[in-house]
Design a protein that fits this description.
The protein is α/β, with parallel strands linked by helices. The chain folds into two domains: 152 residues, Aspartate Aminotransferase, domain 1 (Alpha-Beta Complex); 266 residues, Type I PLP-dependent aspartate aminotransferase-like (Major domain) (Aspartate Aminotransferase, domain 2), CATH 3.40.640.10. It contains 13 helices and 16 strands. The longest helix is centred in the first third of the chain and has 18 residues.
């Protein structure tokens, strides 16, 4: 038997080991009738799997099965689940307060988190805006860029240049800089602002640099410099838009182009921040500092939703001198104390251990084990960077079949399009990682 520890047959009646009196059949019927899930219709053909607990790198289903998590709950739970240090931080903060408004008030957890973010990020980034989610962090970054140029007396600089294959979130401004084909531009045509898009960087991370890779981006920045407020990109590793890893020299070239043409650079490190690519921030691969930096996902270790947008002192001061006199954004749950306390604990936990060695070990193992997928007829490409492993198929494979196949094998993976990918918690053990890579290979062999 595979190490799923407790196995129930497919379609078995849930027997919740955590809350045995719960009627999951009734609950799932309500879920399917009333609850939306991400990018899925209400009452879709495949019901969701109910999770009743999580510990380490395992999710416990209501029927008792235990799944090895290869997703880190959309890349956030870098320390795994139910971590004692993060649990202590949550309990400790709850003894004083779970929430207080940030308007006109402040508190220790926000100050402690702000100090850590300023210390960890490149020197020019000294001003911190703490917000609710990654999408909001991008919205705040866009507002910062627009208000900066208004403060500089150049309101015509109000468009953004983004990269094809990118993903930056689901809110209106964030949607506008996602890939125009695979994003949601068609569904919201006429409402989403029209931005400028450069081709996806063609030069791969692990190949020799090709100067021609930056030529079209350079042309677009030069041609539109008078109306460009900023370039926004995911440094080095594009995430949900295509899981593509590009050459660090491309990022250096974009930084130089922005400097030469008076355009801000926004780095969206929501998916890549806090070690996922093997460096603390993906921009570190290129030695580049952005003007504005977006962080999220792993910020609290997956415990709560929290994000941050950092900017230079020049940007903050220019916005303050502008007509509004302040940055025009202020979420109700801005700098939530419980989330900030968890973020401080997560950052301290990450930095107190040898996270680089763990990520390097995950990378080396995934390179070895996923390489066996290259010879499969359905596979087009395999690529690995840090704790990100991607198998790209030649055509889409039914995701519902794949997910059900993975659950039956005792692993949790959520492929999309032509991509089957791994972003495991950093604490995963080699044996569990081998089960994940083995099941990807086995499922694609069947496909």
């Amino acid at each position: 038997m595979r190490p799923t520890e407790t196995v129930a047959p497919s379609g078995a009646t849930p027997r919740d080991p955590v809350s045995p009196g719960r009627d999951w059949a009734q609950d799932l019927a309500f879920d399917r009738a009333h609850l939306w899930h991400p990018y899925a219709p209400i009452g879709g053909s495949a019901p969701p799997w109910p999770v009743v607990a999580a510990d380490g790198v395992r999710l416990v289903l209501a029927d008792g099965r235990r799944l090895i998590d290869g997703m880190s709950s959309w890349w956030a739970a870098i320390h795994g689940y139910n971590h004692p240090a993060l649990n202590r931080a949550a309990r400790g903060q709850l003894r004083s307060m779970a929430h207080v408004m940030f308007g006109g008030l402040t508190h220790g957890p926000a100050i402690d988190l702000g100090r850590r973010l300023v210390d960890l990020t490149p020197a020019p980034l000294e001003k911190v805006f703490l917000c609710d989610s990654g999408s909001v962090a991008v919205e705040v970054a866009i507002k910062m860029a627009l208000q900066y140029w208004q403060g500089r007396g150049r309101p015509a600089k109000r468009r953004l240049l983004a990269l094809r294959g990118g993903y930056h979130g689901d809110t209106l401004g964030a949607m506008s800089v996602c890939d125009p084909v695979t994003g949601m531009h068609r569904s919201f045509a006429g409402v989403v602002p029209t931005q400028i898009f450069a081709p996806r960087p063609a030069c791969r991370f692990d190949e020799p640099w090709e100067p021609a890779a930056i030529s079209e981006c350079a042309r677009l920045i030069t041609a539109h410099q008078d109306e460009l407020a900023a370039v926004i990109l995911e440094p080095i590793a594009q995430g949900a838009g295509g899981m593509w890893f590009y050459h660090p020299e491309y990022l250096r070239a974009v930084r130089a182009l922005c400097d030469a043409h008076d355009v801000l650079l926004i780095a969206d490190e929501i998916a890549t921040g806090f070690g996922r690519t093997g460096r603390l921030f993906a921009s570190d691969h290129a030695g580049v500092a952005p003007d504005i930096l977006c962080l999220g996902k792993a910020l609290t270790g997956g415990y709560m939703s929290l994000a941050a947008t950092l900017a230079t002192t020049e940007i903050a001061d220019t916005i303050t001198r502008g007509e509004a006199g302040c940055l025009m954004h202020g979420p109700t749950f801005m700098a939530n104390p419980l989330a900030c306390a968890l973020a401080v604990a997560s950052i301290d936990l990450l930095l107190s251990g040898d996270w680089q060695a763990r990520v390097r070990g995950i990378e080396e193992q995934m390179r070895r084990e996923l390489d066996a997928c290259r010879g499969l007829p359905v596979v087009r490409d395999v690529r690995v960077l840090g704790a990100i492993g991607v198998v790209e198929t030649r055509s889409p494979i039914d995701p519902e079949w794949l997910m059900a196949r993975f659950v039956e094998a005792g692993v949790w993976l959520r492929p999309f399009g032509r991509l089957v990918y791994l972003m495991p918690p950093y604490v995963i053990r080699p044996r569990d990682l081998s089960i994940l890579t083995g099941e990807i290979r086995a499922a694609l062999s069947e496909a």
